[in-house]
Design brief:
By secondary structure, this protein is mainly alpha-helical. Helix content is about 70%, strand content about 0%.
């Protein structure tokens, strides 16, 4: 009963606008190239969510900067949990940051990613054109080739490798937490933090490359362009906060 209205809202607010936007870009390109349309579409999506992602990246940078102060508070008030929590929250407020900002952005992007997955997987079929608005151009067929070489409806190992490589570079540009030495800082907590950094830097790119190879290369193209955009965005944030 609740699912149908939610699906209706999802289709009308996210899926249909995305599908129509992609087909509109494709129709107006001098050379009908769905891969190139996906590149342009991805850049537009990243520009739309730029304010949110920029805030999230700045928050991550601030979290790394204040990490030593957080550890000092945790050590100083290790037997007074309520005071410890209050002091840390005051520190967040002082630096105008929120430790959950990255999670909020991820949650907001989830329906966007689901819609993109559906558009890239099913939107190139003429049968999906029933979702196009009446004033939209209705192409007779879709050219699925990117640069006349890569079929974006099929898997592609080259684009999957690019996803992994760009994800790795993105991990390198992200602010790295400072792992304190200390008598207790190098124990379990320090080792756990190091392991998490290694997973983000090495395992996530491999995982993303593997996932991309199991999906139509349209998604791999989207991931690659999106990663490059975030890399440039992170470089801007790093330069401004130096």
């Amino acid at each position: 009963m609740i699912l149908n209205p939610l699906m209706l809202i999802y289709n009308e607010v996210i899926y249909r606008p995305f599908l129509n936007g992609l087909i509109l870009i494709y129709s107006f390109l001098p050379v009908h190239d769905m891969g190139l349309a996906i590149v342009i579409f991805t850049v537009l999506i990243r520009v739309l969510i730029y304010p949110l992602s920029h805030y999230s990246l700045k928050a991550q940078k601030k979290m790394v900067v204040i990490q030593p102060k957080i550890k000092e508070i945790q050590e100083k008030y290790k037997d007074k949990k309520e005071e410890q929590t209050r002091r840390i929250m005051e520190l967040y407020k002082e630096h105008k940051t929120n430790p959950f900002s990255g999670c909020v952005l991820l949650i907001l992007q989830l329906p966007v990613f689901i819609a993109l997955f559906q558009v890239f997987r099913y939107g190139f079929d003429v049968s999906s054109f029933s979702y196009l608005y009446s004033f939209m151009p209705h192409p007779d067929s879709i050219n699925p080739l990117f640069l006349g070489i890569i079929d974006v409806t099929k898997r592609n190992i080259f684009l999957s490798v690019l996803v992994g490589a760009s994800q790795y570079v993105q991990a390198l540009t992200m602010p790295q937490p400072q792992i304190g030495g200390g008598e207790q800082g190098s124990s379990f907590a320090g080792e756990f933090s190091k392991a998490m950094q290694a997973n983000t830097k090495y395992m996530l790119p491999i995982f993303m490359a593997f996932i991309s190879f199991s999906l139509p290369s349209a998604l791999a193209l989207y991931f690659t362009v999106s990663n490059v955009f975030v890399i440039l965005q992170q470089m801007i944030v790093n330069r401004k906060t130096q």
